[in-house]
Target: Calcium-binding protein
Amino acid sequence: HDAFVFATGFGRDTITDFKTTGSSSDVLEFASEIFVDLDAAFGAAHQEGADTVFSIDADTSLTLRNVDLASLHADDFRFV
Model:
């Protein structure tokens, strides 16, 4: 179980081993300056091939390699 923490200005990151299911599922934690809630996060997300990409701005994005957007749920996120 990993927690991936993102604050403002994190750049362009790629997570290659994000797990969305089971007891070892991971969590994405976003500062409120990036996303205030789940709706905001999903609003910035899109599917790009086999990957889910969160586009924050021209210089900031997060790619979840081999993760289908439809497989992400509220328990995969924390907003602080």
User: Anything to note?
Assistant: The first strand starts at residue 3 and ends at 6. Residues 38-43 form the longest helix (6 residues). The mean pLDDT is 95.
